[in-house]
Amino acid sequence: MEEQTVNYSMPRIGDKAPDFEASTTAGPLKLSDYNKDSWVVMFSHPADFTPVCTTEMSAFALDKDWFAERNTKLIGLSIDSIHSHLAWVNNVREKTNVYMDFPIIADLDMKVATKYGMLHPGESATAAVRAVFFIDPKGIIRLIMYYPLNVGRNMDEIQRVLTALQTADECNCALPINWRPGDKAIVPPPKTLVEMDERIANTEYEKVDFYLAKKSL
Ligand code: BEZ
Question: From the CB of 192, is ligand 1 less than 6 Å away?
């Protein structure tokens, strides 16, 4: 039998998000069309009808308006069939009244999971790990999270980093540790001696020193 080679390469922050066409619970989806003029948060889960995955996918469904208000579309993915996805979505709706109606990719041939480095063979050879990809409206991967099979993600952090990415773009600034809306932003450090002296003389910013200054947004 011919040996199959699996490509375990991973996309990186700053890469163009690999395009794909896939079958989803909302019908066929082409990433580059879906992503036009909006952010996309794409997340994989190991398997339908499993407890941790159900809590995570339900959390995305419950917060879908929060994402829509931030011009962000959702895509789920697992290496399960469309029939399995439909049965699971219906089961969760019947049992908990939560409707996971964002597109969920049925990645049975693992094409999308392979392109996005969601297969980590040391963790599982057949199930995707818990990945989250933040893709901006230009189709660039801006942030990646990978979690193992046995630890669920943190919705608060997912929302914090999406807000931070969008805010950093708007203010062309950087954001410090644990940044939250309302907190100050980092002013880019000076790059010349003249800029350094200007920064030393500046009384407007909250300064630790010339290279670490913060301002209100
Ligand atoms: C879960 O979602 O509960 C789960 C899925 C795969 C492995 C372990 C836990």
Answer: no
Tokens of 216: 């209100």
Q: Ligand 1 centroid to 149 CA: how many Å? A: 6
Token pair, residue 145, equals 């999270």
Token couple for 61: 């469904």
Rg value, the chain, Cα: 20
pTM exceeding 0.85: yes
Across the range 119-127, mean pLDDT stands at: 95
The model's pLDDT over 39-58, given as tens digits with 9 standing for 90+, comes to 999 999 999 999 999 999 99
Average pLDDT in the chain:
96
CATH of domain 172-217: 3.30.1020.10
Q: Is the distance from the beta carbon of residue 79 to the nearest atom of ligand 1 less than 6 Å?
A: no
Write the CA distances from 212 to 17, 183, 186, 206, 208, integer angstroms.
Answer: 33, 15, 7, 9, 6
What angle, 0 to 180 degrees and rounded to 10, lies between the N-to-C axes of helices 82-96 and 51-62? 70
Catalytic residues: 53
What 3-state class would DSSP assign to 157?
helix
The region that residue 40 occupies, defined by phi over 0 for left and psi between -120 and 50 for alpha, beta otherwise, is: beta
pLDDT of residue 6 exceeding 90, the answer is: no
- The CATH code for residues 21-153 is 3.40.30.10
